[in-house]
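Blinded run. Sample ID left blank on purpose so nobody reads anything into the name before looking at the predicted structure. Input follows.
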Amino acid sequence: MSDTEDPSPAPARTLGQDGLTPSDFERLAAIIERHCGIRMPASKRTMVEGRLRRRVRALGLPDLHAYCRHVLDEGALEAELGDLIDAVTTNKTDFFREIDHFRYLVGTAIPTLTRLPHRPGIDRPIKIWSAACSTGAEPYTVAMLFQEQERAGTPIRHEIIGTDICTEALAAAKLAVYPFEMAKMVPAPFASRYLMRSRDGANPSIRLVPSIRQAVRFGHLNMMDPVYPVATDMDVIFFRNILIYFDKPTQKAVLHKLCQHLRHGGYLFVGHSETITNMDLPLTQVASATFIRS
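Blinded prediction complete.
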């Protein structure tokens, strides 16, 4: 060996088996954004790594590097895409989250809708769509509100649907079993009537009663799809805390399509931290993060 030769081994990959290279992350992020509109900035890399390790184990692969080769270079993207999207989508939700919206729904929106010439809730059901419904807490909250109307002697015909891109979230929604802490905002009278508590003290959970579970239909839907297989005469659409994951052009495109499914005089609820100003939409704001279709 000459004096100029370096006896040290070749350097290992910077992130090795424990992380994604910047190149791999950028390629995965581009696929995710193209498929479902969700932006994955570099600040999300650690989160993505953590979630994809479950897929690494499920596929019997040695590490994230092997996963990326499998998905990006070896032709497995089509088969893996659904699980990839499931892994990286956020499914944070709670019952009665942003409760002002539900107060407005019961106190203003529903009474106003029932007075319209086409009389939704009387001549036909009030149609409510929880878009990006995650594990179902939002549409099930709406179902509880309608059951309370019936208990009060003023039943209103209604149909509630929930859609989401994440198949795991939809499976959880249909099962309707939740960690006990998700129900912390449920009013006590509602909890006593509509929630069943598990007997497992170590892992407390709740399940919704059958009448609430049966009040909501769930289906898979990608907001990036050119056409939504949903009725075009919805009276209420909840689309809350989703816009923040999209860039401005995607926000505008999705909102325009949602408006095509919202009847004139219908209501759109978005997240309180979201804004839809300067998007040339046929909507008029009537309350905080609440809009009516003009």
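Unblinding after everyone has recorded impressions. The two ends are 82 Å apart (CA to CA).
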